[in-house]
Predict the structure.
Amino acid sequence: MKKFYSVFAAVIFAATINAQGAETFETQKVLTATYSNGTFAGETAGVTVNYFDSRNEGLGTTDDYSISGKGIILRGADQPSSVEFVIPNGVGFFSFNYRKAFIAGAYDRVVAVFVDGVQKSSVAPFGPAGADSTLGTLSTIVNKSGPVTVKISFPAGTSAGEKQITIDNVSWTAAPILAVGDINTTKVNLVKNTVVGETVMFTAKANVQILNMTGQVVKTASVNESTSLNVASLPHGMYIITAIVNGKAVSQKIMKN
């Protein structure tokens, strides 16, 4: 079984337990050490995985940039490289692990999630000079029922050139996710104060992510019931806090004054 080496492991594990699907790339046999295009049947029934200008992660070789077992490397924005998941029955949350592959470049790696061709989220540039095995997690609120295509690629406007990224441990929950208006009726709660000055007060233990209104993750933390999280450094505006609480995916808006 694959291991998740991330500060977000609890979130990913909880999401996987209640997930509609996942892809660890362990069963696929088509990716090689050569960048190419192709397709394979996903580990979740009915899901098709398409990849473009991508290769394996070099597991067990001198250029091993794996995360945990098999994965996939995207090369750069020129093609652009991507891996997409054609999912027949909807997505709530969509999450995956990523890391820098190869050693060239400094803080020039970026990655984004597109839903039916529209960019929904991205991460800030990452990966210092040289080798870097730091693991990141990007979780995106998709919240679409019915057939949906979710693609992991480079954000629009990414400069040309090789900016290799390893992707692994993809998972998604069923749609629809719990909306703000559903919290009281399902007795699931997360945030006590939705109008925020310097701190957010929490009513449940969870690993949380705070996203801005463009879908970028701007802060992550592990919180406990009746504890607070300092968000003084965040600019004024609207944010969405996401987490898994009591086995349910929760998203709640806050206003930072």
In short: The radius of gyration is 18 Å. The chain has two domains: 21-173, 195-256. The first helix runs from residue 9 to 17.
